[in-house]
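Case study 2.
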Amino acid sequence: MTSQLSTRSGIMLNVRPASEADEAALTAFFDQVSDEDRRFRFFAAAEHVSHEQLDPLIHADHFQSESFLAFDAANDALVGSALLACDKAMDTAEIAVSIRSDYKGKGVGWALLDFLGQQAAARGVRRVIAIEARDNHAAIELEREKGFTPEPFEGDPTLVILSKTFR
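Prediction:
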């Protein structure tokens, strides 16, 4: 199932679920994400992502959890990774988005956040959350612009939860 999205800058994206066959492409993709963005996504400062970090992205159950890959339709380059992980009750879903460094600021993150919200709503999820490092100002600002509300992260003052309720 491939979906087509258009970014605010006019880039056409082909978005599809990730599979086990995408591990090498995801490894190369995360090498093209800034060190800081890789740290924000995995909450670890590593030069490369490990197989263990990629495993949930390539082995989703395709309902409670789904990992999406966004490709620039003009050149088929992998430019974004988006994760939706729902709780067992299918009430709340955590989302995470990473954008290739040279595609930041072009609306890819906006388009993927909207797409994840649509996917969550289609599954009946009431609330989506993003857990962000407090110093990830760009993601926090983007999510706030998209209607997310900041909340404290219990037990860790270095993190913040941004949430959006659908119903």
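The chain has one domain: 3-126.
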